[in-house]
Amino acid sequence: MYHLFGCTRRRCIKTVGVLPILLVLVLVVWSYYAYVFIFCPQIYTTSPLQAASYLLLCHAFLVPFAWSYYLVVVTSPGHPLQMDETTPACETVIDIPLSDGLRRDVSSSSLDNGPPPLAHMYANEAAVPLTRSNDRGYEDVALGSAEVAHGIAGNRSLEVKSDGKRRYCNKCANWKPDRTHHCSVCGICVLKLDHHCPWLNNCVGFYNYKFFFLFILYGVLYCLFLFVTLALNIGNFNDFLMGIGTMGFQPTFILIVSGVFALCLLIFLGVHLHLVLSNKSTIESMEGDRRVRLPDGSIGTAPSGNLYDLGTRQNLVQVFGKRWQLWLVPVHSSIGDGHHFPYNRNVYRNLLAEA
Ligand SMILES: [Zn+2]
Ligand SMILES: [Zn+2]
């Protein structure tokens, strides 16, 4: 059923998807109220200094946590094209065979420089109208049939389909840049798609992945802080089991909830730390081998996941940026534009050697 009360299926999902966000907001506001307005005043009566330090640290973790969460929810993960919903989807995939001239151009390129940019490949094609390109080299409007036939939608593409042709999304009727995948929930291709997160009602992709990581990181710190400080002042354990404790019901409830969330988020943080350090998205960590276009027109098969592994430090830089001072600050500092990615030259050379 694609229409319900005049809504498209995608809009209905997006509307209902607001509920998990409201749940997160309720839990965060409730935890803040119980901690700051109930628990801290209790501590203040016996130790004002301790209460002040608790208040200070609580805000030090909560502010970047809430800031990151806000940004990851409202920031678009990035799309190859900002598709208009009224644009009819193209049903036909047009394959692009390389002409003899292009093959000569490709085979004469330096292997050490990796795959040649498509813009260079097509530079000798006088008939190709390089129109309406934005600064990424991608068309920022729907492609015309002539443009599609000449394959000038992108200026550099490494990954190809199993048959050696450029990756193309039938649903979006557009080329898929490297590491782009289609989100079935959002109904659109997403640059470097990691996953669709119901807690965010948004995809996690190239432009909001850093915010997502910091949201988990500060979420762990905030929940751990609440759990540890509340647990240190729990009083009689039997009273705690009865749900009243010396702190009252609400701080006791927040103690349990923060402990559960701290454990879940800690596991999630470990998984994503591993992914960041190896420069993989969640989807890529589950994918099989990836097909890579080689300069001679043949296809190489790269082992899953390590094509973009640049080493630990460079992998961190790709997500968090070159300035380490901004790594833990929820501002966009990731490297690149989400369309083109540096790749591991050794993996690529091995593919050339095997070809
Ligand atoms: Zn798509
Ligand atoms: Zn999505």
Automatic annotation (TrEMBL):
Catalytic activity entry: L-cysteinyl-[protein] + hexadecanoyl-CoA = S-hexadecanoyl-L-cysteinyl-[protein] + CoA
Swiss-Prot/TrEMBL keywords: Acyltransferase, Lipoprotein, Membrane, Palmitate, Transferase, Transmembrane, Transmembrane helix
GO molecular function: protein-cysteine S-palmitoyltransferase activity
Protein location: Membrane
Gene Ontology CC entries for this record: membrane
Top-level EC class as recorded in UniProt: transferase
Bilayer-crossing regions: 12-33, 53-73, 211-232, 252-277
Membrane topology of this protein: Multi-pass membrane protein
InterPro entries for the chain: Palmitoyltrfase_DHHC, PFA4/ZDH16/20/ERF2-like
Enzyme nomenclature, EC number: 2.3.1.225
Residues of the Palmitoyltransferase DHHC domain: 165-287
Domain characteristics, as noted in the entry: The DHHC domain is required for palmitoyltransferase activity.
Record-stated family: Belongs to the DHHC palmitoyltransferase family.
PANTHER family: PALMITOYLTRANSFERASE ZDHHC16
Protein name (database record): Palmitoyltransferase
The organism of origin for this protein: Geranomyces variabilis
Gene: ZDHHC15
